[in-house]
Amino acid sequence: MAKHDPDLSLLFHALADPTRRSILTRLSRGSAPVTELAEPTGLRLPTVMRHLGVLQEAGLIATAKDGRVRTCAIVPEALAPVGAWLDEQRALWEGRLDRLEDYAMKLMEERKS
Prior knowledge:
It comes from Palleronia marisminoris. This is Transcriptional repressor SdpR. GO terms for molecular function: DNA-binding transcription factor activity. This protein is an alpha+beta fold. The chain has one domain: Arc Repressor Mutant, subunit A. Strands 1-3-2 form a three-stranded antiparallel β-sheet. The chain is elongated and about 80 Å long.
């Protein structure tokens, strides 16, 4: 049975949406108020707030409120579990492909003899 990491599932769910990825791309340049993040999306503010909620639940952003302005900031270290999982998958599949290549080379050599 495959391992199931709920935190990793939250991260991948948050990253699955192009709007949320574009918000993270914008936040990678620095903190921004919600209204600035909402502008390029063309979405209504409540919809953007739901997207921000998903990002915050996954731990990818942090928000702070100063008066009536809510500002968001990226939490880059939150992506570490995704990187670790992808590295594990890459190693696993590279190992499998190496073994397949070795097997194919062995078959080719056997056919030559």
